[in-house]
């Protein structure tokens, strides 16, 4: 009897390590699920492949993939000024596996421009990190005989000029409209859908000046086909220091294209923090800065709070430009 009790006691003691090991095995899948990311992540881009926004999304995806060890796949969902992509992200689970490449359109412009954009950029999305900022460039046809903003404004006050931009309601359009409003000039607006159509009229002088993303229009300035009137950032761009900033003539003037990564509301804080840390690490590397410089962009590593403050400020400021200029989506 005593022998049987001793064997039973030994068996009881022996079960404890086995039960602990079994518990660890059962907990392992839950821990694996909690560790983000443990499978591929989608980054929605609201513009076609090959454009500036798409390229920046791919740079961000490559950074995250290298830093976090999982594929970050770009999914292009163009249409309605990127509203389609934004709405698709909001319909996805808020688990960190579907993110959105934010732009001025998604983060600040669309709710002012469209009767029903389907979302509020300040409450429906959580900012992760800014990625980069890119100035636009106002360029004129050489036949005008002007070389800076002051001369262009003076000419526009003597006769009616025509101007083009590459996206109704986009940063190039708002840059042109704010220039007109602050300078106090009237000019004939000629809208285009993209850089290529505008260039077919600007290069031969059928329109007088135009606004485009720096990377798209700068080669024409460097070739002498166009004259760089000014970049739309507050300071000159380091890659073309000979081109003045419009703000040198019109203090306070600024309309740039700024991009970042956002997640749907409800995404776990640890996902936001880990993605932010990975992006900041990658954006501070010299090779990333060099790639962005080729696009005419400057890296903007920072905190989610800094990104949200930028979104809120630009939402108010660009909304005011849209109202003053009477811009409507087409």
Q: For the record, give the distance between the C-alpha atoms at the N and C termini, rounded to a whole number.
A: 92 Å
Quick one: biggest sheet?
10 strands, mixed
**Beta-strand level of the residues, as a percent range?**
15-25%
Overall geometry: globular
Please tell me the overall pLDDT.
Answer: 90
Task: Tell me the structural class.
Answer: alpha/beta
Low-confidence stretches: 1-33
Q: Please name the fourth-level CATH homologous superfamily of the largest domain.
A: Bordetella uptake gene, domain 1
Overall helicity? 40-55%
CATH topology of the largest domain: D-Maltodextrin-Binding Protein, domain 2
Task: Describe the model.
With about 325 residues, the chain is α/β, with parallel strands linked by helices. The protein has 2 domains: about 40-135 and about 255-325, Bordetella uptake gene, domain 1 (D-Maltodextrin-Binding Protein, domain 2), CATH 3.40.190.150; about 135-250, Periplasmic binding protein-like II (D-Maltodextrin-Binding Protein, domain 2). About 45% of the residues lie in helices and about 20% in strands. Strands 1, 2, 3, 4, 5, 6, 7, 8, 9 and 10 form a 10-stranded mixed sheet that branches. The longest helix is centred in the N-terminal third of the chain and has 33 residues, at about 1-35. The protein is globular.
């Amino acid at each position: 009897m005593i022998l049987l009790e001793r064997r039973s006691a030994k068996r009881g003691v022996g079960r404890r390590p086995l039960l602990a090991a079994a518990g660890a095995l059962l907990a392992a899948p839950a821990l694996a699920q909690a560790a983000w990311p443990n499978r591929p992540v989608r980054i929605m881009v609201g513009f076609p492949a090959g454009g500036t926004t798409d390229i920046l999304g791919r740079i961000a995806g490559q950074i995250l993939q290298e830093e976090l060890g999982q594929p970050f796949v770009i999914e292009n969902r163009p249409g309605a000024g990127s509203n389609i992509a934004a709405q698709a992200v909001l319909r996805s689970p808020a688990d960190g596996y579907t993110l959105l490449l934010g732009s001025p359109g998604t983060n600040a412009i669309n709710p002012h421009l469209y009767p029903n954009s389907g979302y509020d950029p300040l409450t429906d999305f959580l900012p992760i990190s800014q990625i980069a900022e890119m100035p636009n460039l106002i360029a004129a046809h050489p036949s005008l005989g002007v070389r800076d903003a002051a001369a262009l404004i003076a000419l526009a006050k003597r006769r009616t000029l025509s101007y083009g931009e590459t996206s109704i309601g986009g940063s190039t359009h708002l840059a042109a409209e704010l220039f007109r409003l602050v300078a106090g000039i009237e000019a004939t607006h000629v809208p285009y859908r993209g850089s290529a159509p505008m260039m077919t009229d600007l290069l031969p002088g059928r329109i007088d000046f135009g606004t485009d993303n720096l990377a798209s229009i700068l080669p024409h300035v460097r070739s002498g086909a166009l004259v760089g009137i000014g970049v739309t950032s507050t300071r000159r761009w380091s890659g073309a220091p000979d081109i003045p900033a419009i703000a040198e003539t019109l203090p306070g003037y600024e309309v740039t294209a700024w991009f970042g990564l956002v997640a749907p509301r409800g995404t776990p804080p640890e996902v936001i923090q880990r993605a932010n840390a990975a992006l900041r690490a990658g954006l501070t590397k010299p090779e990333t800065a060099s790639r962005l410089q080729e696009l005419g962009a400057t890296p903007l590593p920072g905190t989610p709070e800094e990104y949200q403050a930028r979104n809120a400020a630009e939402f108010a400021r660009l909304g005011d430009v849209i109202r003053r200029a009477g811009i409507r989506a087409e």
